[in-house]
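Schema walk-through. Below, the input block comes first and the output block second. Nothing else is stored per chain. Lengths vary across the set, and this one has 334 residues.
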Amino acid sequence: MLLMSLGSLDRAVAADQRGAAAAIGHAPSTLNLAYGLGQAFWFQGRFVDAASTLSRSLPSIRGPMRLASTGTIGTISVLTLVALSKTHAMLGEFDLAMALADEVRAIAAETQRPYDVAYASVAYGFAHMMQGEHGEAVAVMEEGLLVARRAGILLLLPSIARYLGRAHAAVGQAGKAHALLGEALVLTRGQRLTGLTAWCSAALGHAHLNGDLDQAETALQEALAMATSHGYVPVQMQTLRALGELRLRAGDAAAAEVMLRQAVKLAEGMGMRPDLASARLLLASTLRKLGRAAEASAEDDAVAALDLALHPSQVKRSGINEPALLMTRTEHSR
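--- output ---
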C-alpha cells in the first residue's frame, strides 16, 4: 500500500501478490493484502480485477472478521467494502455500490471509530457523484470530512477532498472546492502521496473549468503527467476528457476531438460506463461544432444506450461529469 501511495503501482501489485501467496491461512494478513492489491488494481483502472480480488474477502468480513482489527488504521471490513463500492460505482453498477455503502455505514455505526465513520461517507458520496447526484454527495461527504477533522485524521482529508471538491464545484461552490483541494494538495505533496496528488490535481482542474481556464489547464496538465507516468489510467481518462472540454470552451474543436477520442477509448477499455457516457456526450457536441452532424448523431445514440443501461427505470444523463460544467446539446450546436 505504501508503494501504491508513492506511485509505484506495478511494484505494489507484485509485492501484494507475493504477500498474498505467503499469507494464506492467516486471515488478518490475507485481508490486508487483498485490500492493498484491490486498491492497486483500482488505481490502474483494472476494475474487474479489483472487484474479483476484493470480493474474495467478503465471506470473512461479513463473518468472523466483520469487526476485527487487523492492524490497519480503519477497520478492514470498512476499507474493503468502501473500495468495492467505489469499484462498482466506476463501472456504473449503482445499486450494488449503494448496497455496499449501506453495509459500510452499519459497520461504522457499530465500531464508532472516527476513521470508519468518516471513510463510510466516501462510499455514499462517490456513488451519488457518479450518478450526477452532487447535492447528496456534498451533504454526506461534508459530514465525513467534519468527523475526520475533529479526530485529526489528516490522511482522510485528500481521500475525501478529491471527490468532495468536484461535487462542490458541480453545485456552484467553486470557492469551497478551490480551498479544500488546495489544502489537500499541500498535504499530498508534503507526504509524497503521488496517487492522491494526481486525483486532487485533476479535481482542481475540473473545479476551475467554469472560471479560470489557465488555472484549469495547469492543474489538469500536472494531473495528466503524473497519471501517464505512474499508470493511473482512470485519472488519465478523466483528465483527457476535462482537457477536451477545456479546448472546446476555448474554441479549438479539432484539439478537443483528439483528446475526447482518447478519453473514450480509455473509458471503454476500463468499463467506466458513466465516464464513457459523459465523454461521448462532449464528443458529440464537438463533432457538431466541426460540422459532422452524422457522426455527432451516432455519438448521441451511444450516449442514449448507455443512459438506458445505467438508469433503466429513469433515463437521464449521468456520470461523474458535473451538469454545471457540461454544456447542453443546444449550446454545443450553436
